[in-house]
Every structure is written in C-alpha cells, then in structure tokens.
Amino acid sequence: MSAVVESWFLILAAIAMLLGGANLFMHHSNLIYNQKPGWGYSALTLAGFLVTLVAGLLKLGVPLTPQFPEYAWAGSFEDQPGVIWWLYEYIIKPSTSTMFALLSFFVASAAFRAFRAKSTEAALLLVTALVVLLGRSYAGTILSAPVGDAYSFAALTDFVIMSVINTSGQRAIVIGIALGVAATSLRILLGMDRSYLGADE
Known about the structure:
Number of helices: 6
Distance between the termini: 40 Å
C-alpha cells in the first residue's frame, strides 16, 4: 500500500511541478509584456527559471560515469562540475547564507520589540524565550550542574518545551495548513477561485 501511495505522490508531484512551471512562466511573461511595475524582477525570475530548467533537463556539464561511459546522461546532475552543481554552490548557497545573515538582524530587532511584558501573553512568551535561551546556552548547564546530567536544565528544556509543547503546536499548524491547502485546491479545481490568474473573482 505504501508503494502505491508513494507512486501516486510522485505522479501528482510531477504534474504539480509542470503546472507550477507553466503558471510561473505565463504570469511573469504577462508582467514583462505589459511592462507592469516590478517587471525587471519578473525577467530575472524567468531567466533563472529557464537556465535552471535547461541545465537540469539536459544535464549540462555532468561528467560521465565509469559504470555507463557510453551514456552521456547517466551521471547525476549534482556531481561536480555540472552546471546545476555550479549554480547551487556559487549562487544558491551564497544567496541563502546572505539572506539568513540579514534575517538575523531583523529577528533581533523584532525580538527586542516583541519581548516586552505588556500583557499576559507577552509575559508568557518572554519567560518561554528566556527558558529556551538558558537551555541552549552554557549558562543553563552551569545553573543545573548540581541536579545531574539526567535532569539538567537543558535536558528538561529540550524535552518539555522543544519536544512536547513545540511538537504538538507544530502538528496542529501542519494539520491546519493541510486542510487549507485541500480547501484551496478544491476551490481552484472547481473554478470557484480564479485569483491566481489575476482575476478578482
């Protein structure tokens, strides 16, 4: 049964990728053709999409494999020095690192503004954040040293907050997202929602 479900998942994922790629191309092509505000970003998006698509489908730069030297496409597109490998190592990874480095400053400033005990909910958030920070830092280990390793502050923090409370909250959020995706998909498939095409209704 699991093999059948996995096969259907791969089929649906492939169809979704084709529809998503076609929708991406049509949407940004329309923005570029009509010269709407921000069409330059659409041009960059389309250029990156097409370059990655061609490099991945044709396996540009992929080295031959010793097992199948007569087949040019037998190697993995992730192997060095393929074009996809080059794009990942020198464009995607540096861009991701830069984005997260910038996000750290925004997170720090947002945390400074949010962690103010102006209400009961804000006070609970502040206390939880301090407990988690103590459990993740060396100070928490020093504070809980007399208790022992089995019941250390860090271990209790990981188990109670990160494993029990955080996991249950994440599962509730994932279930809500899954229901929202199913409802939105049905509305789109039934033609009740055409906002993705740029229409109001």
